[in-house]
Automatic annotation (TrEMBL):
Lipid metabolism found in the keyword field: no
Pfam families with a match to the protein in the record: AraC_binding (PF02311), HTH_18 (PF12833)
Lineage top rank: taxon: Bacteria
Gene3D superfamilies reported in the protein's UniProt record: Homeodomain-like, Regulatory protein AraC
Organism, as annotated: Siccibacter colletis
Full protein name: Arabinose operon regulatory protein
Gene: araC
Domain HTH araC/xylS-type: 180-279
Length: 283
């Protein structure tokens, strides 16, 4: 029994880790040719990438056939009922079980095939990139080095971001190059405490009113709102990935006053910088 529990491909494995990853090579009649059935799901998330053959995922009378390149996301508590499709001789699928970092949640809101089971299929031109990242996550997770799990988690974060980037690119028309240049300029000068729209407009050869109009037209927000979003996003990243003091994080994103930084951060995220950092450390 203990031996079975040490194999994540077999029932009884505890998945008591922040990240576990592997390949399940199911072949008709083989020792792995059975249906996984977890009616209450799991505590963490599972990503599943079909590599070869076909699998079938079932959920309360509905089913979905997974084909090579399909990526499924099972959130915590989602029904797990899947196995080799009866019409296929094999189903090779890679998988990653993980508990997300606190700031990942917006990246884990995927379109569902049914219930809460998320689905993503990369464009043909991007398929190799996602497959490569998936393999790197597995290689890192199965490594023996001191930082193997952390490296795997960072690679998983990269893959989630690549998906967000791919979705954004497919949905949005190309940005006006002046808006794009303005965004880059703002991002490069987040630490400037004397920020003004006129300086950005001058940099991209537009009047402040014209830049403001283009920003709202193409991004749906004002220049100042977009900049604040970027500052808070950068602050989240620094709080979750460094031990930089809160005051230094604030200065890094243009807040000279720590109390004001904490107030703005809490307004945007619902938590103070210290509370946000503590939540990331516990995740």
């Amino acid at each position: 029994m203990a031996e079975m529990q040490n194999d994540p491909l077999l029932p009884g494995y505890s998945f008591n880790a922040h990240l576990v990853a592997g390949l399940t090579p199911i072949e008709a009649g083989g020792y792995l040719d059975f249906f996984i059935d977890r009616p209450l799901g799991m505590k963490g998330f599972i990503l599943n990438l079909t590599v070869r053959g076909e699998g079938v995922v079932k959920n309360q009378g509905q089913q979905f056939i997974c084909k090579p390149g399909d990526i499924l996301l099972f959130p915590p508590g989602e029904i797990h009922h899947y196995g080799r499709s009866p019409g296929a001789q094999e189903w090779y699928h890679q998988w990653v079980y993980f508990r997300p970092r606190a700031y990942w949640h917006e990246w884990l809101n995927w379109p569902a095939i049914f219930a809460h089971t998320g689905f993503f299929r990369p464009e043909e031109t991007q398929a190799a990139q996602f497959a490569g990242l998936f393999q790197q996550i597995i290689d890192a997770a199965q490594g023996q080095g001191r930082y193997s799990e952390l490296l795997a988690i960072n690679l998983l974060e990269q893959m989630l971001l690549r998906r967000v980037e791919a979705i954004s690119e497919s949905l949005k028309a190309p940005l006006d190059h002046r808006v794009r240049d303005a965004c880059q300029y703002i991002s490069d000068h987040l630490a400037d405490s004397n920020f003004d729209i006129a300086g950005v407009a001058q940099h991209v050869c537009l009047s402040p009113s014209r830049l403001s109009h283009l920003f709202r037209q193409q991004l749906g927000v004002s220049v100042l709102s977009w900049r604040e979003d970027q500052r808070i996003s950068q602050a989240k990243l620094l709080l979750s990935t460094t031990r930089m003091p809160v005051a230094s994080v604030g200065r890094n994103v243009g807040f000279e006053d720590q109390l004001y930084f904490s107030r703005v951060f809490k307004k945007c995220t619902g938590a103070s910088p210290s509370e946000f950092r503590a939540g990331c450390e516990q995740a």
